[in-house]
Design a protein that fits this description.
two-stranded antiparallel ribbon; binds ligand IDC; 2 domains; elongated; eight-stranded parallel β-barrel; alpha/beta
């Protein structure tokens, strides 16, 4: 072998070695990024929800509590329906659901064209992996039968669009009020609308409003809807107005087996404004947690009223603590106090223990999950170091073999 040939052979070998290493490093790095993209959203983790007794359970059969925020009327505050805001509230505040409040009375902004806004909101919720409540927000139109035909048309359209989605919840009449009774007015309305939805969407949870601005769950419990699965009933409270007597009504309904969903509550008075009662609000949340009742807080807007969670800011996402109202500060700290929605990699799901009964236990379990997760992450780092060392060794041996073969070929040709 000439000196020149030896030189060429050495350079070739070095390049080959570097290439082998690069390919192997590439694979390792790729595997790592894929892994960190594997973060699960609430819907990925919990999948399709259904009812078991008074509890919502997730795809694994575990008790599940939805916690989130309701928009204000989407005709008045459409700007907060945006992807960044939904992602932000999921990541920073740990919500797992949003409620899209579409007032049904034309005097409150209803028009068929607003359906598109709802659909936009549903898409953002889906892309964020959040559950979404589609709320036919009756209020000034206290009897749901007033706009029943529009309601049926609306829910047919929604059900046709979302019958295969796992994150949809239909709320068919926000707050019946005035001269409206369960058996005479609301139940017949609900039976008709539920039939229309169920013709198309066989599974999704449907929430039915209850008399007296969705407070009389105890009355409904005496004669609930039969013949359909996954039907829940709404209970609404405003903590500075509604106190123990309303919890007692709720307890009575629960005792009779009525599944309750707090699709709206405030920590101020029932006008949506006025005094805030944090102490009473905390008692309420404890009651809801103790009974695994899902809850959605009113409202995502910067309106100058105490139920709005934003202060005087024009921002439509990425809010800082200072930009929140008193209600917003209370709510976000409450949401963040739940450990369950800690983002856990999908493959770690099996570590999560099921059916955790109370908050202390919940916290312990969650710390366990975080610890397990940290141990797993450390293991992962350790494993990938081993992989890198093995890769280099294999590349080196591979290079040596090819080098030797080439040397033999070159020598034999001489
Ligand atoms: C309130 C809004 C307020 C608006 C009013 C009338 O906070 O800005 O002017 O509606 O549209 C409910 C209703 C909910 C109310 C809220 C506070 O579901 O629409 O929002 N509230 O009054 N039930 C009890 C209280």
């Amino acid at each position: 072998m000439t000196k020149n040939n030896k030189k060429i052979l050495s350079i070739f070998l070095i390049i080959l070695l570097i290439l082998c290493c690069l390919v192997n490093f590439g694979n390792v790095a790729n595997a790592n990024t894929q892994d960190s993209k594997n973060i699960s959203t609430p819907v990925q983790k919990h999948g399709r929800l259904k009812l078991s007794g008074t509890n919502i359970i997730d795809k694994n059969g575990d008790k599940f509590q939805l916690r989130g925020i309701s928009t204000h009327g989407i005709a008045w505050f459409p700007q907060y329906i945006n992807q960044e805001a939904f992602n932000y509230m999921r990541d920073e505040w740990k919500i797992n659901a949003v409620r899209l409040a579409m007032y049904s009375d034309p005097s409150a902004g209803y028009d068929k064209s607003i359906h598109e806004k709802v659909k936009q909101g549903v898409k953002f919720a889906k892309d964020a992996g959040l559950y979404v409540i589609i709320d036919w927000h009756i209020l000034s139109d206290g009897n749901p039968n007033i706009y029943k035909d529009s309601a049926i048309e609306f829910f047919r359209e929604m059900a046709n669009s979302y019958k295969n989605d796992e994150n949809i919840i239909y709320e068919i009449c926000n707050e019946p009020n005035g001269d409206v009774q369960w058996e005479r007015d609301i139940k017949p309305y609900a039976l008709e609308v539920i039939k229309e939805i169920r013709n198309i969407d066989k599974n999704a949870i449907i929430v039915v409003g209850t008399p007296t601005w969705s407070q009389d769950v105890d009355i409904v419990a005496q004669n609930p809807i039969q013949g359909y699965e996954n039907i829940m009933y709404s209970l609404h409270f405003y903590a500075a107005t509604h106190k123990d007597y309303l919890r007692q009504k709720a307890q009575k309904a629960l005792n009779s087996g009525l599944p309750i969903f707090v699709t709206e509550y405030g920590i101020c008075d029932a006008s949506g404004n006025g005094n805030i009662d944090e102490q009473e609000a905390n008692v309420w949340i404890q009651f809801l947690d103790d009974n695994n009742i899902s809850w959605m807080c009113w409202n995502l807007s910067n309106k100058n009223e105490s139920s709005a969670i934003l202060g005087n800011t024009g921002k439509i996402t990425d809010w800082t603590e200072e930009e929140l109202s008193q209600c917003g500060k209370w709510l976000t700290s409450k949401l963040k106090s739940y450990p369950e929605e800690v983002v856990v990699k999908i493959k770690k799901e099996n570590n999560i223990e099921n059916n955790v009964e109370n908050t202390t236990e919940k916290e312990e379990k969650s710390n366990e999950i975080i610890e397990n997760n940290n141990v797993d992450l450390n293991n992962e780092e350790h494993n990938s170091n081993i992989i890198i060392v093995i890769s280099i060794t294999i590349s080196f041996i591979f290079g040596l073999i090819i080098g030797s073969v080439l040397t033999i070929i070159v020598k034999s040709k001489k």
